[in-house]
């Protein structure tokens, strides 16, 4: 029971920490958020002269901005609008909030002047990354990077602060989750896993593998 509770707290902690940003000023923009997290959506330029606009979720009006004054549901501290930069913040994201949003602007006579939409998509954040290395018989090193929790994880590698080059790789590339490093490659290896909502990395100091010895399956640390 305690373990389950502990896990729930960890998972909640991950989601609550996830803050994403989205530029909603372009029609068809795809915005990403995480359940329980916060998304900042830029609706307008800070310099916009548009005096009135509405934000609709499906057909429900959730924000009405008139001369930089905003009207929205303030009962649950969920929505926050920053007139200084035209950003709308939605906190404690829940499942109902994924989907299509429409922004409508009005001219000074109250006629609709423009309309565009964006979509809010949820992704589970990457929660942890595991890096495992193993020496192969010829002194090459197989390294696998695996992630937990994240939707659509994308991998990347760096060695001593720069992207891993093909010259250092026997198999795989800088986007594979399993790679084999050539002999004598050493240094500070980092695997980063990212998706649209967060990124987590794991690092390991890689030393040259001993080759052609009876104990060739160990690396010298
Ligand atoms: C809203 O405020 C910003 C600065 O806070 C200003 O530049 C902009 O002109 C204002 N827009 C309107 C429509 O009043
Ligand atoms: C907009 O302003 C708010 C409040 O000052 C700030 O927290 C937020 O980061 C700003 N967003 C952008 C995109 O500048
Ligand atoms: C959003 O709009 C697209 C295209 O208009 C539609 O195919 C899709 O089903 C909508 N998504 C939701 C969650 O309503
Ligand atoms: C990853 O490798 C490809 C070729 O394998 C290269 O074109 C690309 O620039 C590399 N990515 C980075 C970030 O260096």
Descriptors for this entry?
221 residues, single chain, Ig-like_dom_sf, Immunoglobulin-like, mainly beta, Ig-like_fold, binds 2-acetamido-2-deoxy-beta-D-glucopyranose, signal, T-cell surface antigen CD2-like, Ig-like_dom, 2 domains
Give the gist of this structure.
The protein is mainly β and 221 residues long. The chain is 7% helix and 48% strand.
Protein topology:
Blueprint: H1 2-16, E1 19-23, E2 29-33, E3 38-42, E4 52-57, E5 60-66, E6 69-71, E7 79-82, E8 87-90, E9 99-106, E10 112-122, E11 128-135, E12 141-148, E13 154-159, E14 162-163, E15 169-171, E16 178-181, E17 187-194, E18 199-206
The structure holds 2-acetamido-2-deoxy-beta-D-glucopyranose (4 copies).
One 2-acetamido-2-deoxy-beta-D-glucopyranose binds at residues 163, 166, 173-174.
Give the count of structural domains. 2
Q: For the CA atoms, what is the radius of gyration?
A: 24 Å
Query: Major β-sheet, in short?
Result: 6 strands, mixed
Order of helices and strands: HEEEEEEEEEEEEEEEEEE
Low-confidence runs: 4-15
Number of strands: 18
- Distinct ligand kinds: 2-acetamido-2-deoxy-beta-D-glucopyranose
Going by CATH, the architecture of the largest domain would be Sandwich
Identify the CATH class of the largest domain: Mainly Beta
Task: Give the full name of the CATH homologous superfamily of the largest domain.
Answer: Immunoglobulins
By DSSP (H or I, 4+ residues per run), the number of helices equals 1
């Amino acid at each position: 029971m305690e373990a389950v509770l502990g896990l729930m707290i960890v998972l909640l902690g991950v989601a609550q920490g996830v803050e994403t940003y989205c530029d909603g000023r372009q029609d068809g923009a795809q915005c990403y958020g995480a359940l329980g997290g916060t998304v900042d959506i830029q609706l307008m330029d800070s310099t916009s002269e548009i005096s009135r606009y509405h934000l609709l979720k499906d057909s429900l009006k959730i924000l009405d901005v008139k001369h930089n004054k905003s009207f929205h549901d303030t009962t649950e501290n969920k929505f926050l609008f920053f007139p200084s930069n035209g950003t709308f913040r939605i906190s404690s994201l829940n499942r109902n909030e994924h989907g299509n949003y429409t922004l409508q602007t009005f001219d000074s006579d109250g006629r609709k002047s423009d309309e565009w939409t964006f979509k809010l998509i949820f992704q589970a954040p990457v929660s942890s990354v595991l890096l495992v290395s193993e020496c192969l018989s010829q002194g090459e090193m197989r390294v696998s990077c695996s992630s937990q929790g994240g939707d659509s994880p994308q991998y990347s590698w760096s060695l001593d602060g720069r992207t891993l080059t093909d010259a250092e790789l026997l198999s795989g590339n800088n986007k594979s989750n399993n790679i084999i490093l050539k002999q004598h490659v050493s240094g500070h290896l980092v695997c980063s896993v990212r998706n649209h909502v967060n990124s987590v990395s794991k690092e390991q100091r890689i030393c040259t593998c001993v080759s052609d010895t009876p104990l060739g399956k160990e690396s010298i640390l």
